[in-house]
Hints:
With about 70 residues, this protein is an alpha+beta fold. Helices cover about 25% and strands about 35% of the residues. It starts with a strand and ends with a strand.
Amino acid sequence: xxxxxxxxxxxxxxxxxxxxxxxxxxxxxxxxxxxxxxxxxxxxxxxxxxxxxxxxxxxxxxxxxxxxx
Length: 69
């Protein structure tokens, strides 16, 4: 999955596949997490958020199942 670089102190890039509703978050420390069942609107909100880290904690973590890649 292609990831788009983002401006964030902890997140380096975000990827999304609309067919599978999979969201990938790559952190500045190199860790990558894949979240499943994430709707397109949630991805759009994440990408447009002023603070990617705050959005991740408030809207994605704890709501969608994830695996560390």
